[in-house]
Amino acid sequence: MKSYTCKTHSICAKQISFDLDGDILHNVKFHGGCPGNTAAISKLLEGTSAKRAVDLLKGNDCGGRGTSCADQLATAVEKALCEN
User: Fold this and answer.
1) Using a CB cutoff of 8 Å and minimum separation of 24, what contacts does 4-9 make?
2) For residue range 11-59, what is the model confidence (pLDDT) as tens digits?
């Protein structure tokens, strides 16, 4: 299992961390952001295929910012998958 951390931009969460075990997501954590929403995203993604998570979350917008916590998680996971 490999751990990843990414700094964010233009969203409330300042950092996102997660683990990848092959293509499976574990331990998704948002540092900051809307606690209820980010906790729900983390619980829903536990044990999910990273590729499926990217497909579901990429492009989600928060308040017209052009991005969101979910979108930046998807981008970070997609980058991590490319590194493997």
Assistant:
1) 4/76, 4/77, 4/80, 6/72, 6/76, 6/79, 8/69, 8/72, 9/67, 9/72
2) 999 999 999 999 999 999 999 988 899 999 999 999 999 999 999 999 9
Instruction: Say if CB 38 and CB 69 are below 8 A apart.
Output: yes
Contacts of 69 (CB under 8 A, 6+ apart): 8, 11, 12, 13, 16, 30, 33, 34, 37, 38, 41, 62
From the CB of residue 22, how many other CB atoms can be counted at a distance below 10 Å? 10
Residue 20 carries which side chain, given as an amino acid letter? Answer: L
